[in-house]
Structures are given as C-alpha cells and as structure tokens.
Design goal:
Helix content: 25-40%
CATH superfamily of the largest domain: Response regulator
Number of strands: 12
Structural class: alpha/beta
Radius of gyration: 24 Å
CATH class of the largest domain: Alpha Beta
Number of domains: 3
Number of helices: 11
Strand order of the largest sheet: 2-1-3-4-5-11
Order of helices and strands: HHHEHEHEHEEHEHEHEHEEHEE
CATH architecture of the largest domain: 3-Layer(aba) Sandwich
Length: about 350
C-alpha cells in the first residue's frame, strides 16, 4: 500500500497524503487532482478501490469455455438476466480454439475494472491446466464465483451440480432396466467433475470399474462418437455420458455400427440442454438446475462486491434424471423393473 501511494504521488506530483485522501473518498481534493490520481492508478496498473470505479464498476466478466454446448448459452442467459436485475452488465468472454485464452480474457477484464467475474466452466476444473490468472484475481481481491468443481487450492466460492448423484441416478436407471455391461464416457483425466463421476460409477458398480468400460474424450459430439464406438465394440449395452453432446455422439456411434437406440443400446446424457426433447430418440439425461445455480452464483458475487464475507466452499445442487426415449431394456431381457 505504501509503495503504491509513493508511486502514484510521484506520477501525479502530489503528496502521498493527497493520494490517500482520494483513495479513501475524502473531501479537500480538487476534482482535477482526483481525476489525475485515478488516471495514474490505471496507468500504473493498480486496481481502483471499488467505490471509485464509477460506471466501469457495473461490469461483470462472464467467462465461458465454449458456446457449442447448449448448456453454456443457457447459463449465460440466466446469469446475464440476474446481473441485469442488479444493475450490472455482463461482459461475455468465450474461448475458441486458437483464439483468446482464458488468461488473456482475465487481463482484459482487469483493464476494464470489472467488479467481479463468473466462470461458468473453465480451466479451474482441470488439474494440469495453468491457473496463474485465477491467483492474479485473488491477489487483486476481485470477487469471483466458479461454476463447476474446481481443483484444490483455488480459494473461491463455487456453485456446482452434484456429479456423484448424477452418475448414481444414471447408473441405477440402466441397472433397473437390466443392463449389466454399462460404459462411461468422461472428459480428460485431469478434469475434476470427470474424476468425481468415475468414483461414483465405481461405487455404483460395487467396486472397481473395468478399464474396458471407461473412455475419455473431449467434450464434443465427435469425441462422444469415437469413445462410444470403442465401448460398443467391447460389448457395452448401456452408456452414461458426461454431457449431452457426448451422448448424441454415442447415439450416432450406435447407428453407424448398425445398432438401434434404445432397443440394442441405451444412452444417458448430462445437462438436459436445449432441444434434447427434439432428438431421435428424445434423450434420457440428467438435468442440471440451471436457473437455481445461475442465480446462486450471482447472489454470491453480489455479496462479495458489497464487501460481505461468503463461504469459499462448494455449494452443491441436486440433479434430476429425466427419462425419455434413449433408454430401454436391452434386447432379450425380460422382467426388468421399469
């Protein structure tokens, strides 16, 4: 703090006491001097105090990993609406392959003097990804909320759907239909939600799950198709997927192999994102409570912006299994509970 006062005072040509008065919002400083001090803060890369950020303090960064998965635009709509109701404007930052990185977006948001940042998915959920930009936000004391499970050591409030419950619901559903060879399509090995889902699947299976029924993939339809193809070739009759696009890829894989969904293969997705009722067959999936989660994330952010202490822990929401037409008894099985 003392170093900052000295640098700003030298830049503007005023005393450290004058800089301190400006930063603390006290009277006795001309408007011209006050603006010069604030400009110097910006030039030197220091964060303005929240109460002095002016209109720019009404901006909130909303960082999404992609827009192709319909769940992320859905979260953006809920969060954006909730922010608008609080008089805040979201700054949408969407990553693209080969484009602006998450760290670059954080730098841009800091330059805009945003009041806070919501990450609706991102590198914080990957153990092997770079995380320095999150630590920079913590050092600058910028309010942050994470949506999804995060790695250990990132001390931010987190809102997430209970991955373990989601897998248990999917697994028990397929078992109740008579499926005994159930495969799992997950994200990368360092992806924390996928680690949770694997652990839950192993528990649901009554112990360790054979490697032949575990496949990892990028979160895309094409990735889901490739992973599901390998599972089906090993004899899986039911497939639990970590996202709806992965599940749609699994349906495509079954058809390319001449199998019928759900008569030969049952597929369960995750998210209950838009248009899953319009697929053929309509997708059985696990619904995230998007509205409740998005509003909770904004509430946690607002409390931080207002200076209130909030638990830097995880707020878990229960998912809901939505049974549609992509799951059924496997061929030749009779008498299974429906």
């Amino acid at each position: 703090m003392t170093r900052r006062l000295a640098q700003v005072a030298k830049k503007v040509g005023v005393s450290e006491a004058t800089v301190s008065r400006v930063l603390n919002g006290k009277q006795g400083v001309s408007e011209a001097t006050r603006q010069s001090v604030l400009t110097a803060l910006d030039v030197l890369g220091y964060e303005r105090p929240t109460q002095l950020r002016g209109e720019r303090a009404r901006l909130v960064g909303l960082v999404l990993p992609e827009l192709q998965n319909p769940i992320f635009p859905a979260f953006a709509e809920v969060i954006g609406s909730a922010l608008a109701q609080q008089g805040l404007t979201p700054v949408l930052c969407t990553q693209t392959k080969g484009g602006v990185s998450e760290a670059d977006y954080v730098d841009l948001l800091l330059q805009q003097q945003v009041s806070g940042v919501v990450f609706a998915g991102g590198l914080f959920a990957q153990a092997d990804a770079p995380h320095d930009h999150y630590r920079l936000l913590a050092e600058r004391q910028i309010p942050v909320v994470l949506m999804n499970a995060s790695i250990a050591g990132l001390d931010f409030p987190c809102v997430a759907c209970d991955d373990a419950v989601a897998v248990e619901q999917s697994w028990r559903h397929l078992e109740s239909l008579g499926h005994e060879r159930i495969g799992l399509v997950l994200g990368p090995a360092d992806h924390m939600p996928s680690r949770r889902r694997l652990k839950a699947a192993e528990q649901a299976a009554g112990g360790s799950l054979g490697d032949e029924f575990i496949e990892r993939s990028m979160f895309s339809l094409e990735g889901g198709q490739a992973a599901a193809t390998r599972l089906l070739e090993r004899g899986a009759t039911g497939i639990v997927c970590a996202s709806d696009p992965l599940a749609l890829g699994a349906v495509r894989a079954a058809r390319r192999l001449g199998l019928r969904v759900p008569q030969d293969v049952s597929v369960v997705g995750y998210d209950d994102s838009a248009f899953m009722t319009c697929t053929e067959p309509p997708l059985t999936t696990v619904r995230q409570p998007i509205e409740a989660m998005g509003r909770a994330a904004v509430e946690l952010l607002i409390l931080q912006i207002q200076g209130s202490d909030v638990p830097h822990s995880e707020l878990l929401f229960d998912p809901e299994l939505v049974v549609r037409g992509s799951t059924a008894q496997p061929s030749g099985v009779t008498g299974a509970a429906k």
